[in-house]
């Protein structure tokens, strides 16, 4: 039979509850940070693509104007893709911190529930038996599959948009040449797939590296 854990003193319970409240506040603040980063990305995306459409509709009067137009479009797309890469890194790190804070809260809840000495509702059985280490029991095939699956819908959206932006840059570069190749769309599509995989793997690795620091502490 499993040994019943030693009862916690009143002081220990107060410390645990204070720690739980601190982790909950950190979790809520971090979730707000994630939402703020994503909202900023949406705002920037709307502004950049709006400017791209506006510049594209301008009919150049001279060859110099056409060159400036192409340069402006290329710079805007590259700028947005670069900023998007930084946002993807920040979102991945922030998501990992949310998981770490949630893990800390769950650990405290498990300790508190173990002190009840009474039967918990059936729904809590899986929770109490949940492994403490994230990813415990995860096989290699599942891990490899996770490398091409974004961490959350936020990362999925940013990954797709960033990859699409770079694909547009590739398409734009080839179409700007005097004799564009026939397979320009194919090259752009291949670029999208390759960049999607690169972004997805990078986001997953950044997430896992942050999550591997299991010690819960204030800040990064």
List the topology elements:
Elements: H1 10-56, H2 63-114, H3 123-128, H4 140-146, H5 153-175, H6 184-211
Helix pairs in contact: 1-2, 2-5, 2-6, 5-6
Describe, in short, the structure shown:
By secondary structure, the protein is mainly alpha-helical.
Shape: elongated
Number of domains: 1
N-C termini distance: 41 Å
Mean pLDDT: 81
* Helix-residue proportion: over 70%
Residue share in β-strands: under 5%
* Gyration radius from CA atoms, angstroms: 24 Å
Largest sheet: none
Topology order in helix (H) and strand (E) letters: HHHHHH
Low-pLDDT sequence parts: none
Count of alpha/pi helices: 6
Structural class estimated from helices and strands: mainly alpha
Tell me the number of strands. 0
Question: How would you describe what is shown here?
Answer:
With 220 residues, this protein is mainly α. The chain has one domain. The chain has 6 helices and no strands. The longest helix has 52 residues. The two termini are 41 Å apart. The model has no long low-confidence stretch (mean pLDDT 81).
Main features:
220 residues, mainly alpha, 6 helices
């Amino acid at each position: 039979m499993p040994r019943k854990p030693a009862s916690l003193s009143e002081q220990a319970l107060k410390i645990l509850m204070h720690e739980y409240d601190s982790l909950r506040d950190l979790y809520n603040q971090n979730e707000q940070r994630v939402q703020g980063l994503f909202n900023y990305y949406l705002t920037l995306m709307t502004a950049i693509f709006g400017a791209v459409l506006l510049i594209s509709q301008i009919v150049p009067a001279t060859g110099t104007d056409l060159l400036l137009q192409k340069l402006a479009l290329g710079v805007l797309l590259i700028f947005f893709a670069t900023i998007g890469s930084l946002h993807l890194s920040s979102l991945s790190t922030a998501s990992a911190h949310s998981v770490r804070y949630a893990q800390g809260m769950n650990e405290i809840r498990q300790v508190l529930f173990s002190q009840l000495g009474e039967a918990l509702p059936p729904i809590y059985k899986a929770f109490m038996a949940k492994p403490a280490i994230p990813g415990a029991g995860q096989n290699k095939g599942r891990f490899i599959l996770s490398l091409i699956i974004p961490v959350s819908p936020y990362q999925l959206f940013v990954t797709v948009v960033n990859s699409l932006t770079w694909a547009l840059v590739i398409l734009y570069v080839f179409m700007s040449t005097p004799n564009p190749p026939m397979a320009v769309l194919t090259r752009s599509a291949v670029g999208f797939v390759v960049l999607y995989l690169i972004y997805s793997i990078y986001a997953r690795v950044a997430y896992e590296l942050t999550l591997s620091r299991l010690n819960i502490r204030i800040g990064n």
